[in-house]
Specification:
- This protein has two domains: 74 residues, Immunoglobulins (Immunoglobulin-like), CATH 2.60.40.10; 189 residues, Glycoside hydrolase/deacetylase (TIM Barrel).
- Strands 7, 8, 9, 12, 13 and 14 form a six-stranded parallel sheet that branches.
- The chain is of the alpha/beta class and 374 residues long.
- The protein starts with a helix and ends in a 16-residue tail after the last strand.
- It is elongated.
- The chain contains ten helices and 14 strands.
- Bound molecules: zinc ion (ZN).
- Zinc ion binds next to loops.
């Protein structure tokens, strides 16, 4: 019984405490709005609300384990034969010229090592002879793998300007074997008549200043030779070219440019070159293929014949030739022969009186080619 009473008392006490606690949590009916001042001072009520607000802690993001960088598979470099590359390709067209320079090449093994220095080249190009040539390039790597490629080289003729036929009674006076002391006198006479002429010069002659003067006064300058030594010049093609280029250099020195017109020493029909069979047949073609034009003559003054011609004789011979070749005439004279130079005034006077025009040769002038005799 005592126990029951005690339990009742405890229950009553608990109820009382509970009711009391509930009353304390009743919101103030007047102060339904929270007093900002109270909040500012952080009283218990605010604290209690804060405490009661469930704190949402963000779920930690699932951590993705870093994907490891893929380690590259060891790539196998395919083993191949060396590769030769020909600059400008396996087939080239080259204008005929005195020399040929290979456009270039290089070689690599399969690892990219440079093998260019090991390339072996065979085959020959004759650069001044029109035709097709093969050059072979071979290379081997350290393990003996090898490659061979072929380049086709086509040597083609140089394109030349078209020949333009001049009006009738056109005369091309040409003077070989100068320059010399007589050349100044000749240039004075030509100037007096306002006539133009062509000088096929010898490169090793002393009066080189006359080349410059002739060029500046509107005359044409052509190659004749450097030495005029037939045996030397016509020994072989290379000897001819060497002589030709030494003369070209003299001309360039005096005029500022090379020339493309020339006259073979002795003319293209010379027999002095017979020490070398067939060389005139070859050279006449080769030089034209390379873009040079040679001129023989259809009127010979005879001034170098060794005969004792006076200037009147020479004048008469030339005038006779002009009458015969009234379409156009290429006259051979030599300024090293004074009688020939002295004849020029009378030739020009006759020409003027008879309607002739005296011009310098160029690449469009008509040619006279004698029949090659070797
Ligand atoms: Zn000559």
């Amino acid at each position: 019984m005592k126990r029951s009473i005690c339990a009742v008392w405890i229950c009553a006490l608990l109820i009382l405490l509970t009711v009391s606690a509930c009353r304390m949590q009743q919101p103030d009916p007047i102060g339904a709005q929270p007093d900002p001042t109270e909040a500012a001072f952080g009283d218990d009520t605010v604290e209690a609300i804060v405490v009661s607000t469930p704190v949402v802690t963000p779920e930690p993001l699932p951590t993705v384990p870093p994907t490891p960088e893929p380690t590259p598979e060891p790539t196998e470099v395919p083993i191949t034969d060396p590769v030769i590359t020909l600059i400008e390709g396996n087939s080239i067209r080259v204008p005929a010229d005195f020399s040929f320079s290979d456009p270039g090449y290089f070689a690599e093994d399969y690892l990219g090592n440079n093998l260019t220095a090991r390339i072996e080249i065979s085959g020959e190009v004759v650069p001044y002879v029109v035709g097709t040539y093969d050059i072979t390039y071979s290379v081997a790597d350290d393990e003996g793998r090898s490659t061979t490629v072929v380049r086709h080289v086509e040597i083609v003729p140089v394109e030349m300007p078209e020949i333009v036929m001049p009006p009738e009674k056109t005369v091309y006076l040409t003077f070989d074997d100068g320059p010399c002391g007589n050349t100044a006198l000749l240039l004075d006479v030509l100037k007096k008549h306002n006539a133009k002429a062509t000088f096929f010069i010898i490169g090793n002659k002393g009066r080189k200043d006359m080349i410059k003067r002739a060029y500046e006064e509107g005359h044409a300058i052509g190659v004749h030779t450097y030495t005029h030594e037939y045996k030397q010049i016509y020994k072989n093609e290379q000897a001819f070219f060497d002589d030709f280029w030494k003369t070209q250099e003299v001309i360039k020195e005096q005029t500022g440019s090379y020339t493309r017109i020339f006259r073979f020493p002795g003319g293209s029909a010379n027999t002095a070159s017979r020490v070398n069979k067939g060389i005139m047949t070859r050279l006449t073609k080769i030089m034209e293929d390379m873009g040079y034009r040679y001129f023989d003559w259809n009127v010979a003054s005879g001034d170098a014949s060794g005969k004792p011609y006076t200037s009147t004789d020479i004048r008469n011979r030339v005038v006779g030739g002009l009458k015969k070749h009234s379409d156009f005439a290429i006259v051979l004279q030599h300024d090293i022969h004074l009688q020939s130079v002295k004849a020029v005034d009378a030739i020009l006077t006759w020409g003027e009186e008879n309607g002739y025009t005296f011009l310098a040769l160029d690449l469009t002038s008509p040619v006279v080619h004698s029949e090659v005799a070797n």
